[in-house]
């Protein structure tokens, strides 16, 4: 019986608290709409992205994980920079191969024969 009385009193207190919160909390009006959290793009716009930039990249949480648009934007940016770097590396490697093909052979330690010695 004591337990039943305790549960009834606890239920009455909870109902009274909820009623006061709903009725008494209307002085200030409804809460303003919260702006959705957006990614603050920490990737540098004025220089190539580095390892530390990628390590420091954090996405804001959404209802079911991360905002797909923010992740897609960041991955698109990283993909574009990687493609640009790959193209630059390919250009430099082809220029290096062309320079090596057109360069005279590397000097050796043996002295070149003189023309006088060759004629005799």
Characterise this structure.
The protein is mostly helical and 120 residues long. 57% of the residues lie in helices and 3% in strands. The protein is built from 4 helices and 2 strands; from the N terminus they run ααββαα. A two-stranded antiparallel ribbon has the order 1-2. The radius of gyration is 37 Å and the shape is rod-shaped. The mean pLDDT is 78.
Low-confidence stretches: none
> How large is the radius of gyration?
37 Å
Query: What sequence of helices (H) and strands (E) makes up the elements?
Result: HHEEHH
Strand content: under 5%
Look at the helices and sheets and give the structural class: mainly alpha
Largest sheet: 2 strands, antiparallel
Overall pLDDT level = 78
Instruction: Using the alpha-carbon principal axes, give the shape.
Output: rod-shaped
Q: Kindly, what is the distance between the CA atoms of the first and last residues, rounded to a whole number of angstroms?
A: 131 Å
Record field, number of beta strands:
2
The percentage helix is: 55-70%
Number of continuous helical runs: 4
Strand order of the largest sheet: 1-2
